[in-house]
């Protein structure tokens, strides 16, 4: 089944106090998408393509800096949050059974934290304002998701009250994926390791993810039959997906789906960019099945994430 496209205009950014019937209709459509597919494109959210391109363009300038200029900003160098900062090529393996992903990224968690604005004018401010736009949209989606399940609209939002504050873990990630190796090195497909891809098979960890891709596409989403289907860039839309902790929270009603980005076809040497806003509950929050079923035992968000991050950044088991 293809990923559905929903019109979000009735509840787009800036619109509040909307008629109950409109909210109900949108939340029903969203529930259908998240129970059947796990991914949905939202159009007319209020976040437009120009904003997306501005963030991509400033990120591109950062990624193009020489390695020694980026290194001081590495993930792990910040005290505010271990996840904040630059992630170099092949550092993450989203599928731990594969070699490191052929992608480079910059994670923004705390909005107060220093990010390299001297090297790239606007890098910080552009990302911070986009972060806040994504936050607003994410809270709206979380509200609709609760209504769609017949619950109080704030059930999910109540555990996402500190997004962007110091020590909150919600992360805005800008990504650059290489056609073959690094653009700073000559394109040489012989250097690609066996089974190496741009982004290994995985599902996201938290509640929901908002995703924006450049026109180079590449994302594939697994359907119920186990086949990977393309989820291309649709300009002006936001792709939203359910992540694992939300699946657990909803007792498997909203489904978190595996996705990946393989290498591009031979001869395609375009660099791909994407922006991902990873939403997760606050560290200390206890996530219990919201239908009262206890299908999964309650778990503290921080404990859940620690084990997932160990897989992504940890030692690699035998390769596939
Ligand atoms: O770049 C993309 O389109 C998706 C990246 C992704 O799935 C992830 O980082 O979790
Ligand atoms: Fe993902």
From TrEMBL:
Coiled coil: none annotated. It comes from Culter alburnus. This is Fe2OG dioxygenase domain-containing protein. Signal peptide: none annotated. Belongs to the iron/ascorbate-dependent oxidoreductase family. Residues 167-281 form the Fe2OG dioxygenase domain. Keywords: Iron, Metal-binding, Oxidoreductase. One of its GO terms (molecular function) is metal ion binding. InterPro entries: DIOX_N (IPR026992), IPNS-like_FE2OG_OXY (IPR044861), IPNS-like_sf (IPR027443), Iron_ascorbate_oxido_reductase (IPR050231), Oxoglu/Fe-dep_dioxygenase_dom (IPR005123). The keyword Plastid does not apply.
